[in-house]
Design brief:
The protein is of the alpha+beta class. Helices cover 33% and strands 19% of the residues. The chain is elongated, with a radius of gyration of 22 Å.
Length: 154
């Protein structure tokens, strides 16, 4: 009898594992409420080294505020010699007045490629991470770049 064997599989190099959002997301997320004043939000951005705040109401994600949203909403004359009362009044506005509503979110089990695709498609710079409706983290374009910086072609 003659035995036939299937040819060995062609070697295409090491198989690259798909990285998931949960591996790179930031789990300590800064949140504000819809009624927080822009003065509070400005102070958080000035003291922290991140660019996004998530707006939560009754433990439910309702919006996102970026540092750019804040800069567009407040007077450019704040903290200058030209500052007037109307300039400081811009700090009394509320989070719900400047936040992006119905934010695009992602699951922690999604791939980084999917996250990057969502960010590019919707022209956004971060994705809140929700698991069963609960906020568990955030991933930003900087997180994706950090991964790419450490990536080595095979």
């Amino acid at each position: 009898r003659r035995r036939t064997h299937a040819p060995p599989p062609r070697h295409r190099g090491p198989r690259r594992r798909t990285m998931l959002i949960k591996e790179i997301m930031t789990t300590r997320v800064a949140t504000v409420s819809m009624d927080d004043r822009l003065s509070v939000i400005k102070e958080i951005f000035e003291q922290a080294h991140f660019r996004h705040l998530l707006v939560v109401e009754e433990e439910e994600l309702v919006g996102v505020i970026s540092d750019r949203d804040l800069l567009r909403a407040i007077s450019p004359y704040l903290d200058t010699d030209a500052e007037m009362n109307r300039d400081t009044e811009t700090l009394n506005r509320r989070a719900h007045q400047i936040m992006s509503r119905e934010p695009i979110t992602v699951s922690p089990e999604r791939s980084l490629k999917e996250a990057a695709g969502l960010m590019l498609e919707h022209q956004i710079s971060c994705l809140p991470v929700l698991e069963n409706g609960a906020l568990v983290g955030i991933v930003s374009w900087k997180d994706l770049l950090r991964v790419m910086r450490g990536w080595q072609p095979v």
